Amino acid sequence: MPERDLPTRLDESLPDVDWDRLAPDARRWTFSAPSGPLAALESGTPSAERAVLVPGVTGSKEDFRFVMPQLVAAGYFVQSFDLAGQYESWPAGPENLRPPGVEYDYDLFVGDLIAFLEAGSTPSHLLGYSFAGVVAQLVAAQRPDLVSSLTLLSTPPVSGRAYRSIKRIGWLDRFVDARGSALLMKLGIVWNVQRVPPGRLRFVRERFTLTRAEAHRQVMGLLSRTPDVTGALAAQPFPKLVAVGMHDLWPLGLHRRFAQKLGATIAVYRTGHSPCETAPHQLSRDLLELYATAPAERR
User: In what residue span(s) does the AB hydrolase-1 domain sit (predicted)?
Assistant: First the structure.
């Protein structure tokens, strides 16, 4: 079997782990963002080339448990953090902004991510997972000087009402508000619709005990007005990757058109919405290939 198939073989034999247990050499810390304290993880040598991996709504930094060691082993310094209001970043919110804000909006998340990037070496390799991919696009469009490469992992491939385009149940979007969408999403996760292993299920259920309901609900509202910055991003010289499972929420054809508009390469895995959890070795391989194509002046 060709060596390139090794990541696939490793992903097919992933163990069920304690997702709250740190990967080797990972360190917990807290970043003081404009919206408040963000729970963060980092691994590797701080002087090395930097990669920042941002999880989505209802997600957390632990979602990259299998990816971080692969990137560190290749010589990168890797950081991740929980979005404001999510899991261990639950204290962070609009009330901490100066002046205080009213809700979790795009400006809040963009401001936090820009501050996080500026606090370390830049430009950095940036990955946004699902909703965080929308935020990462906005940051990369506004501050391209901060970005070495951009990876959009399972990111909504359409603008406007993003959930209207998802498979099978997208038609329900016209009948369900942000509160209803958040409830449906939570029930799907808690009831284990995706049939994740016991260790993973236990972790995601515990995670919901900290995530602020209003943060979840308001982000679902943001996804009903997803911005389109593909034109601005296509004009940027840094390399771009759209990484997605063939069984993602959105049809693969939409992801392919999205990648084409961005001028991005696309990687497709035999998995669903969470390749960082279910295909981490394949994803890491593709990230390393992407990072190697970044212009020298952006590394």
Answer: 52-283
Cβ atoms of 10 and 64 closer than 8 Å: no
pTM for the predicted model, two decimal places: 0.92
Query: Quick one: tokens of 116?
Result: 């996080």
Residues in the chain: 299
Separation in Å, CA 264 to CA 28, 139, 239: 33, 17, 7
The pLDDT tens digits of the residues spanning 175-199 come to 456 566 656 666 666 666 667 788 8
When divided into structural domains, the chain yields a total of 1
Domain of residue 250: give its range: 3-298
Which residue did the predictor score with more confidence, 58 or 87?
Answer: 87
Query: To which H or E segment does residue 129 belong?
Result: strand 124-129
Q: What is the rounded CA–CA span in Å between residue 11 and residue 128? A: 21
Distance CA 205, CA 20 (A): 12
DSSP string, 184-227: HHHHHHHTTTT---HHHHHHHHHHHTTS-HHHHHHHHHHTTSB-
Name every residue whose Cβ is closer than 8 Å to that of residue 270 and which is 6 or more positions away in sequence. 245, 246, 247, 279
**Which CATH number do you get for residue 280?**
3.40.50.1820
